[in-house]
Amino acid sequence: MIFYGILFISLLLFSLVSIIAANNYRKKWNGEIYEAGLLPKSTFSIIIPYRNERKNLNQLLESLQILDYPEELFEVIWIDDHSADSGDLILGNYISQYKPSGNWIHLINEKTGKKNAVDMGVRNAKMDFILTIDADCNINREILNDLNWRTQLPGKFIFPGPVIFKRKEGNISEAYQRLENSGLIVYTAFGISIGKPFMANGANLCYSRKAFLEVSGFEGSNQHPGGDDEFILEKIMDRYPDSALFRYSENSLVLTQTQSGFHNLIQQRIRWAGKGKYRRGFGILAVQFFVFVMYSSLLISPLTGLIYQNIWLAVLPILLKSIHDMWFYTIIKNPFQLDLRYEKVFLSTCIQCFFVPYIAIRTLNGKFSWKERNYSV
Question: 40-57 burial by CB neighbour count: b if 16+ within 10 A, else e?
Fold first, then answer.
């Protein structure tokens, strides 16, 4: 019975933190007050690293063309990470014909990966603030206006923003990703609000170019191919405590697509989880360990209940977790436009009870594939 005592205590602690984080997000969403009519002043370099994104480029290009911000105050920098498709034809045509004009850079042979691409973009940037966007995204036309007033606040140098999935009817993998991603955004915002950044998303991350260079960019995190988001957030906040400001605004939204199927999702999550052991201190590893223990306990709780010949012990933990999840997603549903039919939430809870321990174990191996490349970290 000690097992169930530990499990229910961990569920209680997790629920308390989750509800606090969810209410924090709901209260702040679109609730930020700023000076109306503030004139555009801040300058931005939009950096877009890409590799084999031919099928996604058009939608991003269309959203860039309708950005509502003075053209002289921003630039777009494209960094090609050795693409092998025909995306260059699409991009070349765009740069030659449409505004905003772009700076087009190709990584040299010995340089590969997103961090090298972003670093190259920053060092070629002419503007004061960097906004990194992934090539498979759409951006809100007001995103630079939303950043304009934030970047003028004193002592603020890095501005993570939400990346949500485009709403569409899909398979269980897509439904699961939509629910899980909304939770990750809420925990990201909460961690930043208490000065303990858990994560960030490089598909929608703005920071001061000066701050990036002052902390030597990604130097010291080259062991991992990812981390263009979390590592730079951590380094800037180490140098400038309380310098991060999460963007709780519809105008700050970036839309992207779910991973196609569980295989690609697994590779992405191994890449994300593998960054934990390279973070400074033990805070992130402690959080990861707690989550692993809780979900592993939930996974084996039905078997343990059957051993005790107690049906309630077999079903109650996962049932309580699904009720918690339903409550949590209900609080945050408006920003994310979630489909909250209970059967979908319950199935998502069951998948997560298997998925989280599985990813943790796979991460110990450190091998994954991404963008047609194999990595071992």
Answer: bebbbbbbbbbbbbbebb
